[in-house]
Amino acid sequence: MRYTTWTSDRMFVSYRQYYLQGDEFLSEYDDSDTVRRIFAGNSLAAGGPEHLTVCAGTHTGRIRLTTRQCADEPPLPGEEWETVVDVSICSTSGSLWLFRWGGDVEEDAGNFATAGAGWYRVRVQARGRDDGDGNDGDGHDGDTPVEEHFLSVWPAPPGPDTVHRANDAFARTHYDPTRPPGRPVQP
Which of 15, 23, 147, 187 could form a disulfide with 63 if both were Cys (CB 3.0 to 4.6 A apart)? Predict the structure, then answer.
């Protein structure tokens, strides 16, 4: 499998959020209900045209984040990842960049719309969200982040949200497997 990987122990989150955003998100689209869809849906991520919002446990501070740009769907992760979901997003501009809350881009992570404009699946994996939620605010225990996320992005047709695992306290509180899965938001 061909992929490009980027990792940072200093990914800064505010209001529990970070994002993938395309060049047309702010000028063409408004999806003000994304956070509501996270709380009412899979508990970890929700997307729409040109964006994905991810919900961390850490309110304000640093997490470890690894991203992977994939040509195909990656294998499912091991049980060490407490919460794992797949969601669909559409890039209309042919670009998807990693953003911190407030609009700062992590350019070193690269463009996730590797096949240009079109649909992508994003697998979001999280562990340590409970520790991040209970942390004193910096998201670290010494030099080590207490919360870790892994994002994999690959070109794929749109599909409903898939929850592979929902085992942290936030997921157990907000995710209800009896509700219908979230549907992709069309451009």
Answer: 147
- Which pTM was predicted? 0.91
The helix (H) or strand (E) run that includes residue 92 is: none
Res. 77: pLDDT tops 90: yes
Domain 3-174 belongs to what topology?
Answer: Substrate Binding Domain Of DNAk; Chain A, domain 1 (2.60.34)
Alpha-carbon span 8 to 36, nearest angstrom:
28
φ/ψ of 132, rounded to 5, equals -60, -40
- Residue spans per domain, the chain: 3-174
Nearest to 49 by CA among 71, 33, 31, 36: 31
**Residue 126, CA distances (Å) to 89, 112, 163 in order:** 19, 19, 12
The per-residue b/e assignment along 120-135, b for 16 or more CB within 10 angstroms, e otherwise, is bbbbbbbbbbbbbbeb
The CA-to-CA distance between both ends of the chain, in Å, stands at 30
